[in-house]
Amino acid sequence: MTKDCAPALLSCPQILVKDATKSFSGRVVVDVKELLLGERPIEGLIGPNGAGKTTLMRMIMHSTPLDGGTIELFQTGEHEDSSVLLSALPTHQMAQLGVVKSNQVIMDFGKLTIWDSLLLACAEARFERPHRILSERSVYSRHEEEIRAWLDFFPFVDPTGFAQSAGEKKLLDIVRCLLLKPRFLLLDEPTAGLPDELTAKVMQAIKRLSEGGTTVVIVEHDLSLIWDVCERVNFMAEGQVLLQGDPEEIRKHSTVIEKYLGKGHVAG
Amino acid sequence: MEFVTESLVIGLTQYAPLILSAMGLALIYRLTGLINVAYAETITLGAYIGMWINTTFGIGFYATLLPTGVAAGLLSVVTYLAIFRPAKQRGAGVLEMIIISFGLSIFLRHGLQFVFGYPVRFYKVPRPDVVRVFDVGVTTFRLMALVSVVVLALLLYWFVQRSRLGLQIRALASDEDLAQVSGIRPLFVTVLIWFIAGAAGGLAGSFWGVGSNVAPLLGWRQFLFIFLVVMVGGAKNIGGVIIVGAVTGVALAAMTLQFGQVLYAQLALIVGFVVFMKLRARRTVGAGKV
Amino acid sequence: MNLDWLDAFLLQGVFQVVMVMGLALLLHLQMGLARIANFGVVGFWGLGAYSFAVLFVKVDWSLGAPWPFLISMAFGTVVAGLAGLLVGWLIADLETEGVLVGTLGFATSIWILAVTEQDLTGGALGMGGLRFPFDIGKTKANELLWFGILFAVVALIFLYVFRVHRSPYGRLLIAVGENEPLAGSLGKPTFRTKLWLFAVGSAGMGLLGAIHGVMAHLLLPESIGINVTLAAMVGLVLGGMARVWGAVIGVILAVGLFDVVVQSYLPLPRSWYTQAIPVLREMVFGGTLIVVLIIQPLGLLGDMRRDKLMRRIHRD
Q: A217 pairs with which residues across the strands?
């Protein structure tokens, strides 16, 4: 296994999907024999709608149970190290292992303000117990700085209020993920619905994150972003991983890609 | 074994109305995803209406069944059009709808007392004959209840699973937008379902009422068990509800014979079914939303 | 102290209002914040009452007063809390319908046990032998003091719920209620959270039940019916499910209207009070649930104003 992450740090975490299958109402949606995510710090996962990308990501998070197969997390990227069987754990333990996923569809807490959402993401479990009714100050002072840093970086119209547009909700979802200090971050169409300046900022944040030793896997339809930022690309269609390699290699298979995604994605 | 035949005969005849009302509740649940707590009152009002027709016009019990079924069906449709449909249109969520149906149940249960009076009422019928089935004594009312339930169950099963209209109902239940595009008229089909479910409940109430008495709590007393049968029998198809309903009836009869106290049988049923639901939920893990 | 001015019915009425307020506040946490459809409120309330009574009356205490009383009260609370833990465990991963049937089933089970276990509970004839742990004079004086104790307990419950809104725990409950899968993806143990919320809420309901038992002096299975759950729910929904003050205002309006105003102040024929008024009360409660949830689902006080709250508590 080559390690291409920042040399001075630990190697990035990797996730190995083996023989993973999932069917809905008799139709096979995901059928992945073997997929290792995390060989490079930033990877892309592309494919047409209905390819199974989101379902695969949900299987990694174990919010969708697997019909068969396993998904393992190698926390320091070495196969020999002890691995964690993600497919045997409940979803809420993913974040504790540093495995975090953003959402393709808008997912929000309608009644919570932006500050609420971010404090929620940061708050340690021990402060969220029934008897800790005086802990708000502690949680706030612990996390005020890092939250403000993100609020300065990403523009929200009114952080003390609610997320105002679909774009803000999408952004909020991403910032929540970032505050969880993920070691393995799955981003499901992070820039859909965001204006270009924000897209650039999100990519900036992602690059910074990966430099710090986090593995990032991005599902995207905007291929220019993928070619630009990812060092390795996986191509899925009809539930299977058809192509894997660095952007140059993938783009060589123009016929396959065009068959699924239409012309105009492969060149420049 | 005597115990087995006794349980079977008593269970199926005594609890036939349970199966019938479970089918009705399941129809609404399958179509709308709503557990209509006020269904208990459809049952109760069926008994009251039947009793009223019987005592006011001197009509025999079996002759009251048709008008009772129709009246209960209409009542059910009225509750849909006046309350549940507007609530849904104003965006009420699952929790709100359940509480609304609970409120309606309470409203009807107590409101009817201002119409029919507070004391317990009775059908005016001659004492039923006792027939021996497999050497177990059963009143003709209960036997007829079982026969009616079997007939209605078969009719309903055929209707939902095999007829064209039933296909439309099932299509509507799984995807309303798609169903509409396919030319199915949701309002008509929905009203039909509420009518059928209401009629089933009203008839079940009549059978319960003629066998003992007609009181405001008639339906509510049974509701928990009807509800449990629907939840365990599954929202998947009517057949499951019929089978679970029959098994429940027999099990309740058997346990009552064994423990000598129907309340213990009910308690065992409640615990058993809830634990079953919990274990079943465990196996179907997350909703796959994140 | 001369308490002739105090109408016995008035005291009973106000006692009932405050009692239901306590239940509604706890229900607010479970149903208003975490969106758990607890239709079994009376089950925990009744279990607390009967457990307290059984221990207090049936055990041959060698300790002197007030220990048997206090220990029995604690027992009632703990038993209800444990029941909450068990029921919570059964229902926390079920859909709303499952929670409805599970909690309703639990309340029915408690009623069944109250009726069948006649040796313990006196069955349908009821369980007597409950009395105040003190005696400061006439009945009214004792009742007034006991009301004071109830008031203190409910005030503490209010304070707790008030503070929950302003704490990370409250935020977690709201998140679980709003979007449970999303909360889970942020690493929150939603099952465990709902479980412990249920346990704590049930313990509180049990304590209130025990307090009721002492006031009533006689426990009857017929008094642990759905009407108690209904009253708490109506008060909460009318005032506003999402607001702390919703439980308070709604209960004062709904229960207060019948148990205080109609009971003590409206000059209605005496005969009406045996049947017509109680039946009318339930009918109006049911109607209120329907009307409020269709027209203004968030009740009189509307939605929680989280933005105002957050700005206020983090003013800088």
A: A43, A186
Longest dimension (CA), chain B: 63
Give me the percent of chain B exceeding a pLDDT of 70: 94
Pair of tokens at residue B67: 């008008």
Residues in CB range of C283: below 8 A, 6 or more apart: B106, B107, B110, B111, B114
Partners of A219 in beta bridges: A45, A188
What is the DSSP-derived secondary structure letter of residue C127?
B
Q: How far apart are CA C37 and CA C96, in angstroms?
A: 6
Amino acid identity of residue A172, one-letter, is L
3 state DSSP class of A84: strand
Which residues of B fall within a CB distance of 8 Å from A61? 290
Which among B129, B148, B120, B137 has a CA at the least distance from the CA of B213?
B120
- Peptide linkage before C66 cis (omega within 30 of 0): yes
Q: How far apart are CA B24 and CA B42, in angstroms?
A: 10
Q: Two tokens at A230? A: 């990812």
- Bridge partners (DSSP) of residue A84 are A73
Nearest C-alpha in C relative to A162 = C307
CA-based R_g, chain A, Å = 19
Per-residue pLDDT reduced to its tens digit, B156-211:
888 877 777 777 777 777 666 666 666 667 788 889 989 999 999 999 999 999 98
Distance, CA of C8 to CA of B24 (rounded, Å):
48
Contact B290 A62 (CB under 8 A): no
Range list of β-strands (E), B75-222: 130-133, 136-139
Q: What is the pLDDT of residues B119-141, one digit of tens each?
A: 999 998 888 888 888 888 888 88
Distance CA A247, CA B226 (A): 60
Q: C touches which chains (3+ CB pairs under 8 A)?
A: A, B
- Bridge partners (DSSP) listed for residue A235: A46, A243
Strand partners, A186: A101, A217
Of A55, A91, A103, the CB nearest to B286: A91
CB contact (8 A) between residue C314 and residue A115: yes
The tokens describing A210, both together, are: 């990966």
Interface check B119 vs C, CB under 8 A: no
State the complex-level ipTM.
0.94
Full pLDDT tens readout for chain A, 268 residues: 444 444 434 568 999 999 999 998 889 999 999 999 998 999 999 998 888 999 999 999 999 999 999 999 998 755 556 789 999 999 999 999 999 999 999 999 999 999 999 999 999 999 999 999 999 999 999 999 999 999 999 999 999 999 999 999 999 999 999 999 999 999 999 988 888 889 999 999 999 999 988 999 999 988 888 988 999 999 999 999 988 998 888 888 877 777 776 665 554 3
Residues of chain C with pLDDT under 70: 1, 3, 316
In the stretch 166-225 of chain B, residues with CB closer than 8 A to chain C read 220, 224
Minimal Cα distance from B231: which residue of C? Answer: C98
B290: chain A residues, CB-CB within 8 Å: 58, 61, 63, 91, 101, 103, 107
What is the rounded radius of gyration, in angstroms, for the C-alpha atoms of chain C?
Answer: 20
pLDDT for A56-65, tens place per residue? 999 999 999 9
Using alpha carbons only, give the angle B3, B9, B12 rounded to the nearest 5 degrees: 125
Bridge partners (DSSP) listed for residue A44: A218, A233
Q: How far apart are CA A199 and CA B153, in angstroms?
A: 59
Which long-range contacts (C-beta less than 8 Å, at least 24 apart) are formed by B263-270? B263/C112, B263/C115, B263/C116, B264/C112, B264/C116, B266/B225, B266/C108, B266/C112, B267/C109, B267/C112, B267/C113, B267/C116, B269/B225, B269/B228, B270/B224, B270/B228, B270/C105, B270/C108, B270/C109
